[in-house]
Write a structure and sequence with these properties.
Layout lengths: L3 H11 L8 E4 L19 H6 L5 E4 L10 E4 L10 E4 L2 E2 L2 E17 L5 E3 L1 E13 L2 E2 L13 E4 L8 E6 L2 E3 L9 H7 L4 E3 L5 E3 L2 E5 L3 E3 L5 E3 L2 E5 L4 E3 L5 E3 L2 E5 L8 E6 L1 E2 L2 E2 L4 E2 L2 E3 L2 E3 L13 E7 L2 E2 L2 E3 L2 E4 L3 E6 L1 E2 L2 E3 L2 E4 L9 E5 L11 E3 L2 E2 L2 E3 L5 E3 L2 E2 L11 E3 L4 E4 L43 E4 L3 E5 L2 E5 L2 E4 L1
Parallel strand pairs: 1-4, 4-6, 5-7, 6-8, 7-9, 8-10, 8-11, 9-12, 10-13, 11-14, 12-15, 13-16, 14-17, 15-18, 16-19, 17-20, 18-21, 19-22, 20-26, 21-27, 22-28, 25-29, 26-30, 27-31, 28-32, 29-33, 30-34, 31-35, 32-36, 34-37, 35-38, 36-39, 37-40, 38-41
Antiparallel strand pairs: 2-3, 23-24, 42-43, 44-47, 45-46
Length: 489
Amino acid sequence: MSHWLPWAMAALALGASPLRAAVHYVDPVTGDMGGDGSATHPWSTLQEVFEYGLIESYAPAGHPHEYGDPLVVKNAGAPVKAGDTIKLRTGYHGRVYAAEYYNADYVTIEAEEGHTPTVANIELRSVSRWIIRGLTVSPSFADPYENKTLLQFASHGWSGPSYDCIVEDCTLYSAWDTSGWASDDWNDRSCNGISLPGDDMIARGNYLKNTNFAISVSGDHALVEGNVIENFSGDGMRGLGDYGVFQYNTVKNLYLVNSNHPDGFQSWSVGEGGVGSGVVTGIVLRGNTFLNFEDPDQPFRGSLQGIGCFDGMFADWIVENNVVVTDHWHGITLSGAVDSRVVNNTVVDIDAAGPGPPWIRVAAHKDGTPSARCVVRNNLATDFSVSGEGMAQDHNIEIDLGAQSYDDFFVDYVGRDLHLKAGSPAVDTASPDLAPAIDRDGAPRPAGAGYDVGAYEHGAALPRLSVSDATAVETNSGTVVTFTVTLTE
């Protein structure tokens, strides 16, 4: 849904000016809360900006608050207003918590260019129209260390929902170096990463390391794209709301430290009868990479379910151009899917040892309700299991490891380069019907005489997006991490 029209009316009624835009500065090293927030007289920390009430916004007129209920001005006359930007400079900005800030236009909190601001965690509860950009978030910056969700736009039954918020280009981690962690440390100290419980949320271009459940979405119309999730002990991504798009994310390196059944991506429905009694509608999973582990000697290695959706129903889903490399049977599984399609995915085993090999599976709901009217096409995998009413299954290639080798198909299977090699049986053998217009790299299909099976199109000419290894830099306030996104030929 769109929340703009009601907020536009509220802005006019309360005299807000969405066209106004000013820039304010916060500097933990040289700033003072007696300053005016200018570049030459910045405030001290982001935590104090909220504590001092320096942001004019709107709050519920009564409680419990629901979307559409009346609002009243909060912090009237405060210097930061709707449409403004708060630029943070290098240093520690505290544990950031604030509630009931519904903005008529986006307020942006971002790192000033060339600076590396840090916070222990951020919780904005019952809020709308916030952008958080370029911050480094970790409880390791604070003493004592507290295991809290690193960044959340939280909803609350009393103070109201959160919606229309964005987090992008942030670096979030529990601790940067977990090489000495035992399983108890992972259970006690690994934080959940990003939580987006409300509608119309965006998580884009973030780097998450050493987290529990990395990105969790329960609101509708979410966009989760271009994030890198490295080292996690729960699920990589969860999508429980309708019409969410999860695309071009990388999820890698599971640490199995408890009885949770971890997934690279997981979804389930909730209805009046509890888990599995509802419908999750319109999810798009596109161009994601799920990698069980990179280092065979990684501690706490376990088996990762790639895309695991076991408690449908799941209606009108699109699952395309994903790459799954895992040591589990469940490469891509939808239990209880209708009017959905699974097209041009690549699913392979990470090694020759069990469990596995992974499959693409579309089957009945746990309660016996059959899947119906789904398309499974142009996929390259080690196994398939498709059942239901009115199902279409065609132009897939099942790799027979008894008679074939991954080297027959891929440029460098051992090195995890699953682009198709010249002469691969997957080249020019796919159906154009429902094939994505681009491949995992964003290159157009077809690139040769015909469409290719799997997530990659052989002979793709477009540059590829790559993310450099993250670099940790020690500062007075703790470890700050940087990484670079580049286009390579």
